[in-house]
Structure formats: C-alpha cells, structure tokens
Amino acid sequence: MTDTVSSLLAEIADVGTDLRRGGYTRPVYSGAELDLRWWFCAHAQKRGLDVETDRNGIIWAWHGGVGDDAIVTGSHLDSVPGGGAYDGPLGIASALVAFDHLQARGVSGRRAIAVFPEEEGSRFGVACLGSRLLTGAINPRQACALTDNDGVTFAEATRRTGLNPGHLGTDLETLARIATFVELHVEQGRALADMDRPVAVASSILGHGRWRIAISGEGNHAGTTLMADRCDPMVAAARLVTEVQRLTRGISDARGTVGRLVPVPGGTNVIAARVDLWLDVRHPDDVTTRHLVDEIGRAARKLAAQEGCTAEMAEESFTPTVDFDPRLRDRIAGVLDAAPLLGTGAGHDAGVLKDHVPTAMIFVRNPTGVSHAPQEEVEEADAETGAAALAGTLEMLLHR
Ligand code: GLV
Ligand code: MN
Ligand code: MN
To answer: How far is 85 from 376, CA to CA, in rounded Å?
Structure first.
C-alpha cells in the first residue's frame, strides 16, 4: 500500500467544498459526508479490514476480526460549516496509514478504526452525538427528536442512511470491545508551532457546553412601527452578544461565543418576532462554567425585559472537563520522543469515551493555529510524522 496521509486527503479534496465561505461543509449524513464514509469503507476493504456500521452509525473497520480487547483509533468525517480540511479527516487518513505501517512491520493483534458521526454537532446541534449514543450520554429518544435547519429529525436522517432509529442507544457490547482508544487530531491552536515540535499528547479537554437562548418579542412592520412602540428581540440579542463577551472576559480562562443567531422570520423590513441564538461556553472548572452560564441567562432575561421581550434558555449539551489518564498519556509521550503534553479547548469523541474506556489523543502541528475555518493547515511532513507516531503508539499498546 503506497498511500500517504497527504495522498489520501488529496483524494477527498473536492468533496463538500463550501463555495460561499471556502473550506468544507460536510454535515453528518449529507451527500458529502456519506461520500466520505464510502471513501473510507473502500480504503478499509482494500486493506482487507472487516467493515461494519453499528446501530449508532459508527463505522468500524477491523483487523484481526470483530471482537473484544481491540486497540481502536479513529475520528470523524463531518465538519463545521466552512471548516478546514483536517479537523476529523486527518485522524481517519492517519489511521489508515498507521494500519499500513503496522501491516508492513508484521504487527499482529486485534485493532480497529472507528468513524464517529456528528462529532461537530453542526447539523443536529449536539456534538459527539455518535459517541454520546454509544455510551448512553444522551437518551436516544432525545437524540431522535433533534432537528436540522430544514426540520429533518435525527431519526429521519438515521432512517435515510438505512439504519433503524429504534435501535439507537447505549451499546455496551460494542463499547466492551475497546481496550484502548487513541484519537489523532490536528492541533487547533499554535502551541506546537511555537514549540517547534510536530506532535503532542493530549493532557485535557476544557469542559464545554451549548445553550439555546430564544428571545421573543413582537413581529411588526419596519416602516409603520414607531421606535417607541417596538418589542424588538434583535436589539436584546445584539446587547446580549456584547454582554457575553464582557462577562466571559471577566473570568480568566473562560471562553464564551455566540456563533449562530437566527432571526425569525428574518426579513429586512420585518421586526423579528423571535431571535434564537446559540451560546458556547468553556472553562476548565465546570462549576465556573455553570456559574457563567447562569449569569448570561440572567443577563438575557434582563436585556430582553428592557425591550419588552422575554428570554428562555435551554441546555443542549454539556461535557465536563476531561483529564486524560496520566499513565497512558505518559506511556504514549514516552514512545513519541518525549512529546510535549497539551491541553485543548476543543471537544472530541475521545473525551466522551474517556469515562468508559482508557482513552488518549495525539495532536499534530497546525502552523496557522486556525481551526473551524479554511485556513486550518498541516504540512505534509508533519502529517506523515503524525501517522508514524500513531503507528508507534498502536504498536506499543498492541504489545501491552
Ligand atoms: C468541536 O470541534 C468543538 O470543540 O466544538
Ligand atoms: Mn474534530
Ligand atoms: Mn471541530
């Protein structure tokens, strides 16, 4: 097999390109993401791996037969809107190449590559939906009811891919097959570039969550409604966005973002009847995160009331801070030339799996430090170094 990480990624460079923003828009179970899933299955089959899709839509490609005590690596193929080429696919392409290295070295032992659906939560709102379903971190009925922007439910999208939504949910049998899970991922900051190192081992993931805030007012005519007579939720939403920034800046290490704001119905000459906005808050200390979100909720109600509107806030997901197993983390750093340890502010399936199986992550240098944007970057040599690091890690774990 002569594939390299770069040659594999070049094969999918035209899939799901975003003509509006640049980069890639590959929502879960869209044509683009399904094309990528087929692409992965074809490569897995070409390598003689046994490929199956489990009841939660996770693809598994097995070396050494389906069974227990497997060393598993993997990541995701879905993207945020207008995302980069590497967030997710780098981990999948590196896994294929790492398996090639192990094969060439004659390394035996059961291993698998897993492809998780809806890691970004960019279509149905809940990140790491596949791993949350697998581990029982989300109720399948709640997952089925999630809808995308077109009103398609997750149940319906699941059905359209040929899976039975009635079978979604905790899968202890599949989970029990994983002896250790290692996810390779592009670094989503500049730490490795600044350290002049190609790879790092993850130490932690910031606790993070998503909240939907709906501000309701009175829809009316932009020309005939006097300024004094308005209940305009857009004004309250605009003030709330700046208040999120102010409150978050007051807490060291906190991150607060409003990345999506939707006026309903949304017309230039229409005072909105409602504005939905989505809040993403992260902090190493989960109590602080909760406290900040409560403060933002209070601010939303107050700012809404000032405009004669009301505000309601609902939690869509929350993942506590993850500290990766220090023993496993240090063993991996040891086989990777004393790779540095790095915390991350980004969520990952490895973080969701961590409470159920031994889990670790490897990060690969991103010279721009940018992610969730087209400027995300990995140099060819680093991509191959990353795959070699993953192979070395898997080999160490297979030998136990
Ligand atoms: C996933 O990339 C996230 O951290 O939102
Ligand atoms: Mn990712
Ligand atoms: Mn991402």
So the answer is: 7
CB 153 within 8 A of CB 147: yes
Is the CB of 350 within 6 Å of ligand 1?
no
pLDDT, tens digit, for every residue of 156-166? 999 999 999 99
Residue ranges of the chain whose pLDDT lies below 70 = 1
pTM over the 0.85 mark = yes
Range of the domain at 64: 5-206+321-398
Do 299 and 330 belong together in one domain?
A: no
The predicted structure's pLDDT at residue 303: 98
The rounded distance, in Å, linking the Cα atoms of 295 and 281 is 12
Whole-number pLDDT of residue 1? 65
DSSP H helices in the chain: 5-11, 31-46, 89-104, 129-135, 140-145, 154-160, 172-176, 191-195, 233-249, 286-306, 326-335, 349-353, 380-399
Ligand 1, residue 348: give the atom nearest the CA: 1
142 and 54 within one domain: yes
118 ligand 1 Cβ < 6 A: no
CATH number of the domain where residue 74 is located = 3.40.630.10
pLDDT value, residue 400: 75
Structural contact between residues 231 and 307, judged by C-beta atoms closer than 8 angstroms: yes
Query: Ligand 1, residues 79, 205, 206, 348: which to mutate, most atoms within 8 A of Cβ?
Result: 348
Same domain, 292 and 389: no
The ligand 1 atom nearest the CA atom of 119: 1
* Structure token digits, residue 139: 């109720």
